[in-house]
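Input record (one chain):
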Amino acid sequence: MTERNPRPAKRKPPPRVQPRKVYIATACAFMAAAGGLSAQMATGNDPSLSAQKPAAVVPPTTVKRVIRTVVVTKVVKHRKPTASAAAPAAPASTGYTSQTPSYSAPASQPAAAPVQTYTPPPAPAAPAPAAAAPVTRTS
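The corresponding structure, as predicted from the sequence alone:
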């Protein structure tokens, strides 16, 4: 029969990399890259000074914008109705009042139509003030 080894042989752990060797290898790689670039520039093959194709010249674009501030000022003169021209007002919800002219027209002319003027409805009530923030104590 075949013999079985009851205990396999223990493997050795991989060798530990020493930090000093990593530092030395990194410094050597940096020096090689820097030396290669310096040799390339010393021979006149500097990539930043090479003759490159000039970029396409784009003409400046003019952007036209219309910026306009308009302030409209209207002077509105309110005429006070005379006592004889006072007429009953329309309901306040429409905002319009009807007034008839106070002059008397000759019989040959037709009666003038009533003039409507706009009176804005009353402004809504102001909102209640906001409640005060709760007072808390922090340490």
